[in-house]
Amino acid sequence: MNGLIFEALKRTLKAKGVTYRELALRMGVSEPTVKRIFHEKNCKLDRLVEICAAAGVELENVIGSMNRGPGPVNHIAPEIERRLAGRPALLFVFVMLSEKFTPQGIMRSQGLSEASMFLYLRDLEELGLVALGRGLTVKLLVETPIQWNFEGPLKPLFEMTNKNFIGWAITHIEKEATFISFSRRMRPETAEMVRREAEDLADRARLLAHHDQHTTPEDGLTGYKWTFAFGATPFPAIMPIGPHARDAGARMPEQSLAKRRRPLPA
User: 0.90 cut: is pTM over it?
Assistant: First the structure.
């Protein structure tokens, strides 16, 4: 059995806080047996499946197969999206939870108190998006990944977060972020090829992140954002050019211009 699988299993056990002793108890075998399997990095497939089941992880996520992705996307009910639109902070907490952040990780990232975190989680529970356990333990009640409706009530918030991210990336080039922006004239066929290649790269990034989240402790993960925009440049919308300041005629009302026009000779 490939040693890389067992290395991934070790990271998974660490991420879930499961010791060899606890794993052995769940499997109904001795702790030395479990240690021997991990030391030899070899066992039958049914035993490997048993280990994964006891660890609470799917085998395909441990293997990190490149032939299968995170699964079909899921949607949030329109009514829930409308309610989240009025609570940006609540939306952002849920987005981070859906990205596999723990409540403690969100608290550290955002500088929140335990009381604030609890209140946010309780509000999400009232919306039917999570189930609260003891302390700050929480279970998502919505399968991920989530496909948000970018033309719905949350559109202004998604526009804001992406504009904020682009502004942050521009001011952190070569330090913490990468920002690439240029305009080129090309054939539509070339543009379509570039778009497909970018989508393929995004799919691969999502897949790699999916497997990292299932095999790596949270303190070994860093949140990264991908924002990609590509299309025929709408120059009037993004680079508006009005009349020249000294071109007074261009700003005159149409009626005034009509008075200045002289009729053509008969």
Answer: no
